[in-house]
């Protein structure tokens, strides 16, 4: 019988991985009485994140690890994780950053939104009750501007298009032709949500507060933001 799966992508998260896996495992154990699974997708992190994840997998029943040899970007890591979870019969698939920017407690709220009728629940910074703490002015402008740009270009009503805290019903991922998704960073998040809306799925935004990471550092870059600027208009003409 299938259960909900959480995918945790990691690249150099040695200081975060153990605490985030334990926190998520606790939240999901309470939210999913029939069981849950957690899949860490590590891209050969040089700081040994993958070894820590392996140790957790031997200790915690719900946890397993997918090792990929080298860093290929967030999008490809998620696609590999989705394929693995769907193959194993996942009923729901969740995305979350592994750096505590997303509060693991909110996993229960995303799942609840889907159980109440959404096909895709998005953790959203830019709806009432949501927000960002700790970010400087520049990063806030870039993030808000990015969501605004994607919303206008794609004609969507979704307020937070670039976030990576989501819960998909299995049927959504089956319908959106994952092998043809090409984007890597923020554009990956935009592309998945856009495809879900285009297929007629019900997308709901759940307010979340995003905190800047305390340990480790961001792997996103101007190159990834530029990818999003360049790719978003191309998404519109596809499918
Ligand atoms: N497997 C994998 N994970 C990645 C990669 N790039 C980023 N991540 C993970 O994706 C999540 C979000 O990345 P982060 O650098 O915090 O982006 P930011 O929050 O936008 O600054 C974190 O859990 C990272 O470890 C990658 O190339 N491969
Ligand atoms: Mg982060």
Please characterize this protein's 3D structure.
With 239 residues, this protein is α/β, with parallel strands linked by helices. It contains eight helices and nine strands. It has helices spanning 17-31, 49-59, 74-87, 107-115, 137-154, 170-175, 186-198, 222-237; strands at residues 5-10, 37-42, 63-67, 92-95, 120-124, 131-132, 166-169, 203-207, 209-210. It has a seven-stranded mixed beta sheet with strand order 3-2-1-4-7-5-8, with helices on both faces. It has a two-stranded parallel sheet with strand order 6-9. Helix 2 links the parallel strand 2 and strand 3. It is globular, with a radius of gyration of 16 Å. The chain binds guanosine-5'-diphosphate and magnesium ion. The site of guanosine-5'-diphosphate has 20 residues, from strand 1, strand 2 and helix 3. Residues 9-11, 13, 41-43, 71-74, 77, 97-99, 101, 213, 218-220 line the site of guanosine-5'-diphosphate.
Strand order of the largest sheet: 3-2-1-4-7-5-8
> Which quaternary structure do these chains form?
single chain
> How is the main sheet built?
7 strands, mixed
Q: What order do the SSEs take from the amino end to the carboxyl end, as H and E? A: EHEHEHEHEEHEHHEEH
> Helical element count?
8
How much of the sequence is in beta strands?
15-25%
Q: How many runs of DSSP E, i.e. beta strands?
A: 9
Q: Distance between the terminal alpha carbons, to the nearest Å?
A: 33 Å
| Rg, nearest Å | 16 Å
Ligands: guanosine-5'-diphosphate, magnesium ion
| Proportion of residues in helical segments | 40-55%
Q: What is the mean predicted local confidence, pLDDT?
A: 95
